[in-house]
Write a structure and sequence with these properties.
The complex is a heterodimer of chains A (about 550) and B (about 325).
Chain A: E1 4-13, E2 16-26, E3 31-35, H1 42-49, E4 59-66, E5 69-70, H2 76-82, E6 87-90, H3 104-115, H4 120-133, H5 139-142, H6 152-164, E7 170-174, H7 182-199, E8 202-207, H8 210-216, E9 219-224, E10 227-233, H9 234-239, H10 244-252, H11 262-273, E11 278-289, E12 296-307, E13 311-315, H12 322-330, E14 337-342, E15 345-346, E16 354-357, H13 371-382, H14 390-404, H15 421-433, E17 439-443, H16 451-468, E18 471-476, H17 479-485, E19 488-493, E20 496-502, H18 503-508, H19 513-521, H20 527-542
Chain B: H1 2-32, H2 37-42, H3 48-57, H4 64-77, E1 79-82, E2 87-90, H5 105-140, H6 145-159, H7 162-176, H8 192-226, H9 229-236, H10 241-271, H11 273-278, H12 284-293, H13 297-325
Antiparallel strand pairs in B: 1-2
Classes of the chains: A alpha/beta (about 550), B mainly alpha (about 325).
């Protein structure tokens, strides 16, 4: 009997059909990944397996059988006995998924006591045992910590420990590593792999990241618009995809081992032929937050130069200071020490010649103003003092900018909520272009976007750069994206640049051990390569 | 514990500064208020000479800063007051003598404070139980009949003036049903049982009004926490709804309730005038209203300081409770 058997599943929210006739099975001890972009319905499927749509107003059709329980027909009591005991779920954001008010050990013990008879003390001991199992050092003491006292990776380990507490037959992991740094992601995926080998539990992994799927499972199901596009063994689906959408998805995934796309490479040659004019220069930048003993040095002694028409990639994990650096380059933050020079002149404060594109296209646009107005703002700021006929010119310029980034001039009066994430990021880019900048600092411009959208936005940035001779500073955590777009790369760690060089130098022959560690942690798209890398990481860890 | 010691020290200094500022403001306000204080104090039938005498005795001719300085002196080292025939010593902390009765203000406050505290403490327990209970229940039963009935009751409670509720309670419970005698204040130290029985109706009338705002706040706050990710986690692990609502959601929802309670407790100590008047309770609120109407400056200043002290104290307690409830909170 299969561990999970889903037949003809449909889930409707109001009039919206999120899942449409989905069928799949998962055998005991096997691992299946549901892969798809946002809105494909993959998380909805995961929730449906535990009957989490009960009582939410969603209409669920078809049949779901998990570990011998008919989820559709089950009573509330039966569902509660399924949840956590036979099938346990690990969520995306480990901080918000734990109760901030209780000790982690107590939360695990509470879940354990729901399903297993036993004293409070026994439950507490079980909590320490599973925390130790997932690699929390000094588990007995740390089990008394609250979630905020744990790092992101440790929190995700704690959630996995909670899942393990009752020895479930099925582990459902919904984007378990999306909120984590790449090195931590590798640790968590390795942990899931080991646990599966040891306990023989089945794994249903929900992810938008094809690389994560390739690392972790034996079968893949590609979803789009609530339907199955393609499913089969991971080597077949990722190695020789049959469906055009799968191929599109795979080709959009940036690869850390790929050389730059030809279009950008040729541009690089052009740039080197021209005079290498430095447009932005930072020397010995330092930024502290707080004072005295509590001062935190976010950026420490960073110097860099950006030349006309080139892209400098700044890559690092969270907390490495890359965003702080980006903001100092634009002038949004004053450096504690050091200076930023534009075109050879020292400048303080913001400057129209250096613009910024922000990470979150949702929150970086004012929801109460039309996008046209948002783009017009920098134009108005520059035209201050001039009057009258300017309004018409500003409008014409905004229309031109909208068309330039692939939107329509008629979108002027529309509001941000009417656009998709990728379109909103285009608006953000148009706004940055409005001031005729020479440099644009992009802070994680594509990290909130799906891979296919990501590829489009990256392509747009490349085009703009070539046409307008812009210099880009591309700040990101994603090593593959950075390689794809950058001429030169700076690797940041704890506020310092640990390695810098041309993209090929840094990626193909990294000198710094940290850079090597980062590169080793990037998930490979090829399952065999993933297995080799996992073995290599194990060796590294045991050495 | 250095953190907690530092917190206490900073809070104490802050409280003293606040109270000092309040006293200055009250002095200035009364100084610029029109009306002949000496005439009011002496009474309508006093001759101009008598009024002049009173003004001299109360130092009403002195400039504002001199009078305020005397007030501060009394507070720190005590003060001797001449009542015309004898000299009365008022030891520190001296809040002065009432213009009206020549009684020491501190004494007046100390006889009335227990009444007010009795009323407000009891009412607070009731309004928390009723308000938070109603709020939790209506969040849990959202969209069902229970919630609609509770919402209607809450609105009604909010809209009804305290003297209507109090009067109805008194007429029904004491008059028609004769379950209780008409309330009359009995000291806690004299007879705890009678104290409670006599305060039951005042507690209820004050609490019913307050409970309405607590119910609304708790409901909103509960709905917010119930939508959080960690609640979903515990649902996905088969934890029962009772434990989810009682253990996980309620704890997260309590912070704004604690804050509202601190404010309402503090202001009710001196502000439950209507309840005090209705039930004939000799509390601070009644006295304060009277003192303001006869421009009895020392009594007003003293009262305002005591009430201010309780507001600040209640807020400090609320901050400590936050930190106990949520370990991420750092006391500063």
């Amino acid at each position: 009997m299969s561990l999970v058997r889903v037949t003809d599943l449909t889930v409707e929210f109001g009039g919206l059909r999120a899942v449409d006739g989905l069928s799949f099975t998962l055998e005991r001890g096997a691992a299946l990944a549901l892969v798809g972009e946002s809105g494909s319905g993959k998380s909805t499927v995961a929730s449906a397996l535990l009957g989490l749509h009960h009582g939410t107003g969603a209409r669920v059709g078809g049949s779901i059988e998990v570990a011998g329980t008919d989820v559709q027909a089950a009573s509330d009591g039966e569902l509660r006995r399924l949840r956590g005991a036979k099938a346990a779920m690990v969520f995306q954001d480990p901080l918000s998924s734990l109760d901030p008010y209780y000790a982690i050990g107590d939360q695990i013990a509470e879940v354990y006591r729901v399903h297993a008879r036993g004293s409070r003390r026994a439950a507490r001991a079980r909590a320490v045992e599973v925390l130790d199992r997932v690699g929390i050092p000094d588990a007995r003491r740390r089990s008394r910590s609250r979630p905020h006292e744990f790092s992101g990776g440790m929190r995700q380990r704690a959630l996995i420990a909670m899942a393990l507490a009752c020895e479930p037959e099925l582990l459902i992991a919904d984007e378990p590593t999306t909120a984590l740094d790449v090195t931590v992601q590798a640790q968590i995926l390795d942990l899931l792999h080991t646990l599966r080998e040891e306990t023989g539990m089945g794994l249903l992994l929900v992810t938008h990241d094809v690389g994560v799927a390739a690392e972790s499972v034996d079968r893949v199901l590609v979803m789009r618009h609530g339907r199955v596009v393609e499913q089969g063994p991971v080597t077949a689906v990722l190695g020789a995809p049959a469906e055009p959408y799968t191929r599109e998805l795979l080709s959009a995934v940036p690869r850390v081992d790929a050389v730059r796309t030809p279009a950008q490479a040729s541009e690089e040659v052009e740039a080197s032929e021209e005079v290498e004019e430095v447009v932005l220069e930072a020397s010995r930048l330092r930024r502290e937050f707080g004072r005295g003993k509590r001062a935190l040095v976010a950026v420490d002694d960073v110097s860099l130069t950006v030349r006309r028409g080139e892209t400098l990639g700044v890559v690092g994990e969270s907390g490495s200071g890359k965003t702080t650096l980006g903001r100092m380059l634009v002038g949004l933050l004053e450096p504690t020490a050091g200076e930023v020079r534009h075109d050879g002149h020292a400048r303080a404060g913001v400057n129209p010649a250096v613009q910024m594109v922000f990470q979150d296209p949702v929150s970086s646009l004012n929801p109460r103003r039309s996008i046209g107005e948002s783009i017009a703002d920098p134009l108005r700021a520059r035209a201050m003092g001039l009057r009258g006929s300017d309004e018409g010119r500003i409008r014409a310029r905004v229309t031109e900018l909208l068309e330039r980034v692939g939107l329509e001039g008629a979108h002027y009066e529309r509001y941000p909520h009417e656009f998709s994430g990728g379109q909103r990021q285009r608006v953000g880019i148009a706004r940055a272009l409005a001031a005729d900048p020479r440099v644009i600092v992009c802070d994680e411009p594509v990290s909130a976007l799906d891979v296919t959208t990501q590829a489009q936005v990256v392509a747009l940035l490349g085009e703009l750069q070539r046409e307008l001779g812009l210099a880009l500073v591309f700040v990101a955590h994603d090593l593959a994206v950075v390689r794809q777009v950058s001429d030169r790369v700076a690797v940041m760690r704890r506020g310092r640049i640990v390695e810098t060089g041309t993209a090929d130098e840094v990626y193909d022959s990294p000198q710094n051990p940290y850079t090597r560690q980062l590169l080793a942690a990037v998930p490979a798209l090829d399952p065999e390569a993933a297995a080799r890398r996992r073995a290599a990481r194990r060796e590294l860890a045991s050495a | 514990m250095t953190g907690f010691g530092g917190f206490l020290l900073r809070r104490t200094i802050g409280t003293l500064a606040t109270l000092l500022a309040i006293s200055v403001i009250v002095y200035v306000v009364f100084y610029v208020t029109p009306g002949n204080v000496a005439q009011i104090t002496c009474g309508p039938r006093c001759s101009p000479e008598q009024v002049h005498q009173v003004a001299l005795q109360l130092h009403l001719d002195d400039p504002l800063y001199v009078r305020y300085w005397h007030f501060l002196q009394g507070l720190v080292v005590g003060q001797d007051y001449s009542t015309g025939t004898s000299v009365e010593h008022c030891s520190a902390p001296c809040l002065g003598l009432s213009y009206q009765t020549d009684q020491q203000v501190l004494g007046i406050i100390l006889t009335r404070l227990p009444v007010s505290l009795s009323l407000v403490f009891g009412a607070m327990v009731l309004w928390l139980v009723l308000g938070v209970g109603t709020g939790v229940l209506s969040a849990w039963r959202r969209g069902r009949l229970t919630e609609r009935v509770l919402t209607a009751l809450t609105l009604a409670g909010w809209a009804t003036p305290v003297f209507v509720i109090g009067l109805v309670l008194m007429i029904v419970v004491c008059g028609e049903l004769q379950l209780l005698p008409f309330p009359q204040y009995v000291k806690l130290t004299d007879d705890p049982e009678q104290w409670a029985w006599n305060l039951l109706l005042p507690w209820l009338s004050l609490a019913l009004i307050e409970a309405a705002s607590f119910a609304r706040l708790t409901r909103a706050s509960m709905l917010e926490t119930l939508a959080e990710d960690h609640i979903r986690t515990f649902r996905a692990y088969g934890v029962g709804e009772g434990a989810i609502v009682g253990r996980h959601a309620l704890r997260g929802a309590l912070a704004p309730v604690i804050a509202l309670n601190a404010n309402n407790f503090g202001s009710a100590v001196g502000g439950a005038v209507l309840t005090e008047t209705l039930f004939g309770l000799p509390g601070l609120g009644q006295e304060l209203v009277h003192a303001v109407s006869v421009v009895d400056l020392p009594v007003v200043v003293g009262m305002v300081l005591v009430i201010g002290f309780f507001v600040v104290l209640a807020n400090a307690v609320a901050d400590v409770l936050y930190a106990v409830a949520d370990r991420r909170v750092v006391l500063t």
